[in-house]
């Protein structure tokens, strides 16, 4: 697969780069800039080669139209600080502002386009609609431009700026994607066993589906975070007002049966920290999963579960973790995530391989004060690294091969 060096002389040429700049925000304050920092080397490499660099990225999940809270403007400012140069920000993606900003770029300069998901064509399931939007992106940079795919966190998405543009422009894989794949291959090519996977987070419906494949690969599967409640419901527990995917309860019941039949240990929480509302200062109470009050929601795994998860991980030689165990952004609900992070550092210290994947998971280990070096690898991709682990074809990678 070709890398940036295979694109030839880039001086004076426009290069469209798809990065994953989907960072956590508190208002317009970036609470963890890990994904921006991870994207800098490729952008610097291109600018250093004299390219006119046009970065495109998404933030959150807007519904195909502009929404102020999902603007990439704060990201443009931070990117400029990290690059040590001004980053021109276009207030739209393929409109007047984008054309003006891109048209004014000089060699070695960098621009960031507004959230690509403000355009319905980006995420459309309809090939023609997505293709039409990709055509607009190509028109923006011109037919002589090149495309560099460097957003590892989105390579599992068949979206216009990830997939369709690569079909329309000479393309290359960025260094971030190449490095991620190199490291994650250690998990798929004969991992040392026991191999444990820890899942949590809030993208429940996305990530429940990966369990089907992971049951055939991991020796131990630990489930916490928002997705635990659909499993608890499958075990017959009431889950109060916790995150619940009602239409997935049967599927989870099937996973529980399959795990038992195939000898895969599927560990679920036995206690949880509940609160009456989703707030930092909501009163937190530890309850057994058999006694979740109807009017309360589970926002973390409980202390008994944290201890059980930590000891299940201690003996593992390979661990992959995606998705916080609770709402780690609020102190009262961060203990479960801290316990799992701590357990991964012990796996590393004992010579095993520990990998943390996902925007918020990576942000969690940093904000809880862990040293990044205590983990084998911190991946920028959550859903993407999980799908890679499953052995699934990733559209954003496959398209670069064709
Ligand atoms: N019990 C819970 N209820 C509600 N939200 C939860 C719960 N547990 C964890 N979360 C939230 O999950 C969010 C992260 O989930 P997510 O699935 O997006 O993980 P991620 O590491 O960012 O992966 P990806 O990169 O795929 O998005 C955090 O903001 C956290 O507060
Ligand atoms: O946070 C992520 O995992 C990536 O930025 C992809 O975001 P998405 O799940 O909204 O496609």
TrEMBL record:
Similarity remark: Belongs to the phosphoglycerate kinase family.
Matching Pfam families? PGK
Keyword field contains Oxidoreductase = no
Q: What is the lineage of its organism?
A: Bacteria, Bacillati, Actinomycetota, Actinomycetes, Propionibacteriales
Name under which the protein is recorded = Phosphoglycerate kinase
- Keywords per UniProt: ATP-binding, Cytoplasm, Glycolysis, Kinase, Nucleotide-binding, Transferase
Question: Which parts of the sequence bind substrate?
Answer: 20-22, 35, 58-61, 117, 157
Q: Which reaction does it catalyse?
A: (2R)-3-phosphoglycerate + ATP = (2R)-3-phospho-glyceroyl phosphate + ADP
């Amino acid at each position: 697969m070709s890398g940036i060096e295979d694109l030839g002389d880039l001086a004076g040429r426009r290069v469209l780069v798809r990065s994953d700049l989907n960072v956590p925000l508190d208002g317009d304050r970036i609470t963890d800039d890990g994904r921006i920092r991870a994207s800098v080397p490729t952008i610097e490499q291109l600018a250093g080669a004299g390219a006119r660099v046009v970065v495109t990225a998404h933030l959150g999940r807007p519904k195909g139209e502009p929404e102020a809270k999902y603007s990439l403007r704060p990201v443009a400012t931070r990117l400029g600080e990290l690059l040590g140069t001004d980053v021109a920000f276009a207030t739209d993606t393929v409109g007047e502002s984008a054309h003006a900003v891109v048209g004014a770029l000089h060699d070695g300069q960098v621009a960031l386009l507004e959230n690509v998901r403000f355009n319905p064509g980006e995420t459309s399931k309809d090939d023609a609609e997505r293709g039409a939007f990709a055509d607009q992106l190509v028109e923006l940079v011109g037919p002589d431009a090149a495309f560099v795919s460097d957003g590892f966190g989105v390579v599992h998405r068949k979206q216009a700026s990830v997939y369709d543009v690569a079909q329309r422009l000479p393309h290359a894989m960025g260094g971030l994607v190449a490095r991620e794949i190199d490291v994650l291959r250690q998990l798929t090519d004969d991992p040392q066993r026991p191999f444990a996977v820890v899942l949590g987070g809030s993208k429940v419906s996305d990530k429940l589906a990966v369990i089907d494949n992971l049951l055939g690969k991991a020796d131990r599967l630990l489930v916490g975070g928002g997705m635990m409640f659909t499993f608890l419901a499958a075990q017959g527990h009431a889950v109060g007002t916790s995150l619940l995917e009602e239409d997935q309860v049967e599927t989870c019941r099937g996973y529980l049966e399959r795990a038992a039949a195939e000898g895969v240990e599927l560990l679920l929480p036995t206690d949880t920290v509940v609160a009456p509302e989703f707030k930092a200062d909501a009163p937190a109470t530890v309850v057994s999963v058999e006694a979740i009050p109807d009017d309360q929601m589970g926002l973390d795994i409980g202390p008994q579960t944290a201890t059980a998860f930590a000891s299940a991980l201690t003996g593992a030689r390979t661990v992959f973790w995606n998705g916080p165990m609770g709402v780690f952004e609020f102190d009262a609900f961060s203990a479960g995530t801290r316990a799992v992070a701590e357990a991964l550092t012990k796996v590393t210290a004992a010579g095993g391989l520990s990998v943390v994947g996902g925007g918020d998971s990576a942000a969690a280990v940093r904000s809880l004060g862990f040293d990044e070096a205590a983990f084998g690898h911190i991946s920028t991709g959550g859903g993407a690294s999980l799908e890679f682990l499953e052995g699934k074809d990733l559209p954003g990678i496959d398209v670069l091969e064709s």
